[in-house]
Amino acid sequence: GTATTTIHDGKVAWIGMVLVHPEFRRLGVGKSLLKHCIAWLQQRGVPCIKLDATPAGKTVYVPLGFRDEYELERVETVARVNGETRIAGCQVQATECDAEAISALDNEAFGVSRRLVLQRLLGEHPDLCWTVRPPSFVLRPLEGFLLARPGANAWHLGPWAARSPEAAEALLCACLARLAGQRIFADVLVNHPARQLVARYGFAPQRPLTRMYLGCNDWCGDPALTYAVADPAKG
After folding, report:
1. Which of 80, 158, 200, 222 has the fewest CB atoms within 10 Å, i.e. the most exposed one?
2. Chain mean position to CA 4
3. Structure pTM?
4. Any idea what the Cα angle at residue 82 is, between residues 80 and 149, rounded to 5°?
5. Pair 208, 70: CB distance under 8 Å
6. CA 220, CA 170: separation in Å to the nearest integer?
7. How many CB atoms are located within 10 Å of the residue 4 CB?
């Protein structure tokens, strides 16, 4: 079995990749790994521990004290070009040098800084980053950003944050144009404009997820800004 932990800014930790080989399931391996991760993080003084649970995993997490934060859904599609949506005065563009502005908006959406995760994504895949910039950008924050990366079976879209549905759609169109013909996954919030937006662009439901937390939830960020989470393994 495996499990991973990631600590963001010393405040919020993530447990991910809780996987058990089929031959060793139902023997308590996953639960033992999970308890070890929780103890390891609590020993380091992390006040909030989060994870994204599948329906099967949730039956393990609830008895350990995890509580629901909000519902997610993994969606998928084969990207196709539908024309590119633009916003008056704004331009969608790929960028590899705007880490500070991206990190600032991500901090608003996620709740704590995860600068190192973003820097790695930007460094490894600078051609898979899109931003929406308002007029007079020097004086105003980003309208939105979207990062993507390759996976084993598909391209993964996220993190994706935007201040308006229009900015979110512009980013999605730019991404779909870049990855046309490729299979794409995204983990979107269910009760959110993101769910309706991706449905209009042909994304179909694959599986439900529940974002859960243990301990306090003092750094919940602003889910209204979040159109797709980064990764069930890291948040």
Report:
1. 200
2. 16
3. 0.91
4. 45
5. no
6. 26
7. 14
